[in-house]
């Protein structure tokens, strides 16, 4: 039990260390080996996107004073959750819990694209007209609140070990920074790397303005769920250098301040992107 308490108290520190390490590596990598030329001013974008994550962090602390690791520890002590009802070795419970949480994130991401009111919140992430490491931090505070609530419910239902929850959160944060990176990975390496993790080239497709590409590649850590459920798309039709990033109906995001970006779910048009609305290419929709 003492080990669990130490894990809970050190959770924030561990996550911060990994966060600053990964974002520093990705920022340097983007300078040395960028994949694409950015169309917006990088400093202005970074200020805006980093300010959003600061607002998110403060909001989550105020709304949810407890941590995910403490939720997992409480579930374990009270024998809540599926995994806590069976005699399973710790390594097996760790792997099963980690995979189950990753699947839940895939399904959550899919849901935020499928339900129009949730898509409005998720638009803030996709409205970024460039994609780099800071895009992986750019989520509306209300989306972050819903996401954390879903994680809490998932942990209570599954009952993963506290260490698995901490490892998953560290991996999820790192993968979000990595797969949004504007970094150049050789095609031969990417081909094999994406068999095990979501690569920047794989996730960049998801940020295309073309609807069928936006509604694909929903995975964050592992690429397997997209392949299993038929949402995998290997490459953007326009190629990575020519792909248009963002949303076809919001091409003014760069002119918005932080308040304008946060108001997008309430002031902006949701466009034709939610999965429950048919569509393929915004350019074709304009002609019809």
TrEMBL record:
Any Pfam family hit: FA_hydroxylase
Residues covered by the Fatty acid hydroxylase domain: 94-231
One Gene Ontology term of the molecular function aspect: glyceryl-ether monooxygenase activity
GO biological process: lipid biosynthetic process; membrane lipid metabolic process
Localization terms from the record: Endomembrane system
CC per GO annotation: endomembrane system; membrane
Transmembrane segments: 12-29, 50-73, 93-119
Keywords: Lipid metabolism, Membrane, Oxidoreductase, Transmembrane, Transmembrane helix
Membrane topology (UniProt): Multi-pass membrane protein
PANTHER family for the chain: ALKYLGLYCEROL MONOOXYGENASE, STEROL DESATURASE-RELATED PROTEIN
Protein name: Putative sterol desaturase
């Amino acid at each position: 039990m003492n080990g669990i308490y130490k894990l809970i108290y050190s959770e924030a520190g561990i996550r911060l260390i990994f966060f600053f390490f990964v974002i520093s590596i990705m920022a340097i990598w983007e300078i040395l080996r960028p994949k694409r030329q950015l169309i917006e001013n990088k400093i202005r974008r970074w200020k805006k996107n980093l300010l959003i994550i600061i607002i998110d962090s403060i909001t989550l602390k105020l709304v949810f004073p407890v941590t995910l690791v403490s939720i997992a520890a409480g579930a374990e002590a009270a024998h809540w959750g599926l995994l806590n009802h069976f005699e399973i070795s710790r390594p097996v419970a760790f792997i099963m819990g980690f995979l189950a949480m990753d699947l839940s994130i895939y399904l959550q991401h899919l849901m935020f694209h499928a339900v129009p009111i949730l898509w409005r919140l998720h638009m803030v992430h996709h409205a970024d007209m460039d994609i780099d490491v800071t895009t992986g931090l750019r989520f509306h505070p209300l989306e972050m609140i819903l996401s954390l609530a879903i994680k809490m419910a998932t942990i209570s239902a599954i009952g993963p070990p506290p260490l698995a929850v901490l490892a998953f959160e560290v991996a999820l944060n790192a993968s979000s920074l990595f797969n949004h990176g504007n970094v150049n990975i050789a095609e031969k390496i990417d081909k094999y790397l994406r068999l095990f993790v979501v690569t920047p080239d794989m996730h960049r497709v998801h940020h295309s303005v073309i609807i069928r590409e936006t509604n694909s590649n929903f995975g964050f850590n592992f690429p397997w769920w997209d392949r299993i459920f038929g949402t995998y798309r290997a490459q953007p039709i326009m190629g990575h250098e020519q792909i248009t990033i963002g949303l076809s109906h919001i091409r003014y995001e760069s002119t918005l301040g932080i308040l304008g970006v946060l108001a997008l779910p309430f002031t902006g048009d949701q466009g034709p992107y939610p999965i429950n609305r048919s569509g393929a290419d915004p350019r074709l929709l304009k002609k019809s």
